[in-house]
Amino acid sequence: MTSSDMPAVLPGDLNEINAILDGVEANISSSLDLPAEDWLGQSGPFKSLDEFQTSSIKSMRELLRYTNVKPSSRVLDYGCGLARLALPFSGYLDAAAGGRYTGIDTDASCIDRNAKVFGSLDHFRFDHVNLFSTMYNRGGKKSYRSIKRKKFGGPFDLAFLFSVFTHILPEDCDDLLNFLNRRLVPGGEVFCSWFLLNPETEDRISRGTSHRPFPYTHGSVRIDNAEIPEGAVAYQEAEVRERLARAGFSNVQIHYGKWRGDIDSWVWQDIVTATAG
Ligand SMILES: C[S@@+](CC[C@H](N)C(=O)[O-])C[C@H]1O[C@@H](n2cnc3c(N)ncnc32)[C@H](O)[C@@H]1O
Q1: Which residue of 46, 78, 97, 126 has the fewest CB atoms within a 10 Å radius of its CB?
Q2: How are beta strands 270-276 and 184-194 bridged, if at all?
Q3: Number of domains in the chain
């Protein structure tokens, strides 16, 4: 199957999703270099290139299941890291039908590397944003003003953020949500992963049955490491809903992840999808 004749699927149609993913895997060019193995920590806890590649397909599967992504979609991969998702998208998007991909990250070396690897694909672009993070970019700017007016190849039908809001503090959260809402077409979708706190997770954390303890507080959120607050951040679910609404998002859907412990789920972090207004 070629990318242009891959059908869009309704969320939840698993056979269809698996057929699409078979086509995606077959379409990924073997000439696209994978990152150096000692760099994989940038994207997540991957021990090998195999794990990195498998996880890229797994994450694509989540997008196919929980969003209306199509080969003609204009997609924004915010906090793209080592372009883990650009791999499956290179085998999925149909440039002739308008499909295109933008990856944005605070890490300039990742962006340089991604731009080189995907340089032969005209419908792919990568942009550096010099924003501050104790975890990822200590030399960056503390304000989102520098990126407020840039289009980054938008507008977009879908913005996705795998493990990015899990590294964003409350003081920056509204700026990022507003940025995303302004880059999406009305009715466009955001898909993002979080660690969400609610009475159930708080109870699991206090009983020691969640996979993460988040022992410190930082304003309204809980964090893993007081020295590196952006290392891992957990938000109250009610606060995330309020912030999404304030930024103009509606139709919020949540899929809880396995990090909470004792639950069967497709996902590790909690997934939130919402519609841009
Ligand atoms: C855990 S990694 C996830 C990378 C990628 N989304 C993936 O799933 O493979 C988090 C990424 O977000 C980037 N990042 C952190 N804060 C950011 C910000 N404020 N703006 C853009 N990128 C950011 C980091 O540089 C890092 O590459």
Answers
A1: 97
A2: antiparallel
A3: 1
